[in-house]
Amino acid sequence: MIALVGDTNPYVKLLRANLGQQLGKRAILVEVSETTLTDELSARGVVWFPIDCVLAVSVKADRGGSALSWFAGHPHIVRLASQKPSPVKGSVQSVWASESEYLVSVVRRGYAVQISEQDLWGAMAGHARDAFFNCGLGVITDIANTNAVCCSAHSFKQRLARVLIEAHQVFPALEPLTLTQKRIGTFLLTRRETVALLIEEWRREGILATFRGAIVVNDMERLRNESCACYQRVALARQRLLASWSSILLRSRGPSANPHAIDVRVSPPTLKATAVSTQG
After folding, report:
1. Which residue of 29, 116, 130, 152 is most buried, as measured by CB atoms within 10 A?
2. Helix, strand, or coil here: 254?
3. 146, 141, 171: which is closest to 159 by C-alpha?
4. Is the per-residue pLDDT at 177 higher than 90?
């Protein structure tokens, strides 16, 4: 059963099929919350494969605050750096960050498969690891460039629609988006009141429904019509990274690779459980 849960993340599915034997029992299923980010992960390098949690990756802005870069959910991979803990409570530094400082926060609590950086890269051939790292840098640069153009060239209405579309893509199906208007304002570097006015307009038009601390998209087609096309460019960049992961794992695959060899364990004390085989 755990294997089936893990396979909802395409990175985990490919990992099990290609590097199971090399990684053995080093994959851990963890419950992800703000406490997890702060207490468990800021001290060491890990790679996360979200299952049903949703993370927001943001970049520090020049005028203070942090602007949303992208959401990470079940189709994605997030590498958390180990250099130093972030001073922001509930966040840690993110990956592939060169000149910019990226922060990760939890938008929806849930589960993720976690593998230490050392274990994962150690199971890969050196050239494969470097190739994936370079591809990751390229993808993050593409997303950063898309975000910069979006911020300067597109209206607030377009950018807000884009945020809701991208969140909808990674939240579990049929589940409200647990995004408060204040948090959306933080992501877009604007006031909560500005967000509230537009959300209310879309609510009256039937595009959205709102609840306390949550938003439901009733008409995705109309929301897309309100948005710019930047969410499509970000999706294409992520597809490129997944294709690179697939190609690199095939090149790293050993002759004795076993698709059922990765056991996904539950990490204590977050959850009280024992080791679970991935073959069931």
Report:
1. 29
2. coil
3. 146
4. yes
